[in-house]
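I am writing to request your help with a piece of structural work I have in hand. I am sending you one protein, given as its amino acid sequence and as whole-number tokens for its backbone shapes. Kindly check, if you would, that the fold set down in the tokens agrees with what the sequence suggests. You will find the record immediately after this paragraph:
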Amino acid sequence: MDLEKDITVMYLYTPLCGTCQVAGRMVDVVKELFPNVTFVKEDLNYIPERAIEWQVESVPCLLIFKNGELVKKIYAFHSVPYLYETIKELTE
């Protein structure tokens, strides 16, 4: 059984956020390293009720769900290796 299939990574951004543009490129790179993980990009402007539900404080934001449950929320993306290691820990 491949546990990576139980992981969903959701990248939340807004189009006018410069930091979101940089973070989005980092997520695109990390996405290629996890072909069995579901990655989703969402403009936070279109899902305000979810922002409240997930208590999103700012963008960019990376939400990591395991088996449908929110297990990690990241605001400081740091680097591609940081994101890679964070996601890898949850897939093991």
About this structure: The beta strands are 7-13, 38-43, 61-66, 69-74. The chain has three helices and four strands. Helices lie at 18-33, 48-53, 80-91. The radius of gyration is 12 Å.
